[in-house]
Design a protein that fits this description.
Largest interface: A-B, 34 and 35 residues
Strand content of chain A: under 5%
Strand order of the largest sheet of chain A: 1-2
Distance between the termini of chain A: 76 Å
Largest sheet of chain A: 2 strands, antiparallel
Helix content of chain A: over 70%
Shape of chain A: elongated
Number of strands of chain A: 2
Oligomer: homodimer
Chain lengths: 135, 135
DNA sequence: CGTTACGCTGACGTTAACGTCAATTCATCT
DNA sequence: AGATGAATTGACGTTAACGTCAGCGTAACG
């Protein structure tokens, strides 16, 4: 159904907006497993699914190492409850981190806005003085 | 008024919770300018003010290089309107970045929560099956 | 058969912000 | 005087996720 053919490295790069180096790097890190036609890489549907998950994981802020472990567990999904729980726990921990990060960010934004307001008033005064002396 | 004495590197480290390496690094990057008593560093009130600003800047997510530029302008605060505007603009740009980052984070959190819910239901099914087969 | 394009494999480079370690100096404590 | 404890400089190490470059093979075009 979902285009089942193998894809070349270039097609992959165009499809996912990554560089060849990135794909080779992910292969070296055992995140994807392209087959070979002679020496050239061929990416299967499975590789594409994994790459999609990798990129999503990155958006979530997971490290590649985290992602590799998650993918490994994802493979034998359901086969081992304990492992699934590990995945679940890892994701929840990450979620907690992200929420904390979000809160810190929100606070920092608020602080920075205050500074900017202070600054704006300072600037207004200077602008006034300048205007006055120019008048 | 605000304790005007010079401080040793150790006092600084204790006061600001940084390592000596950090202070030396900041000096090398020309963010602070401790005097010398023989070969030993002595930090003035000015250094302390700057360090405080540096650490705040880091909380805001500025790079040290950004911070250095901001401090330089801060020094001649008010003396040059154009420079003040530059500072202001830089801070606003950073604010925009942070707000975008915050929004992306919030979205990623939402996505991740959905995944976790999906996962939780999957797990419930497995748990059920296991319970059944155990019964 | 020459060249142009693409792919492959090492292997070293990059960035930020320090950490870590060695060799040395200096002052103080005993 | 010897030992102990801080400080200093210089230099290399670290981490993540690739970027970049050299040197090589090969496949198709004309």
């Amino acid at each position: 159904m979902t285009t089942d053919a193998m894809m070349t490295i270039r097609e992959m790069c165009d499809a996912f907006d990554v560089t060849p180096r990135t794909l080779r790097f992910y292969e070296a890190k055992e995140l994807i497993f392209p087959k070979r036609e002679g020496t050239k890489r061929l990416f299967s549907r499975r590789d594409r699914v994994r790459l999609k998950l990798i990129l999503r994981g990155k958006r979530f802020g997971f490290s590649l190492e985290d992602i590799r472990q998650l993918l490994d567990m994802y493979d034998r999904e359901g086969s081992e409850r304990a492992q699934y729980l590990t995945t679940y726990k890892l994701a929840q921990e990450r979620l907690a981190q992200m929420e904390q990060q979000r809160d810190e960010l929100i606070e920092a934004i608020a602080e920075l806005k205050v500074e900017l307001n202070d600054g704006a008033e300072l600037y207004k005064r200077y602008a006034n003085e300048t205007t006055k002396s120019a008048a």
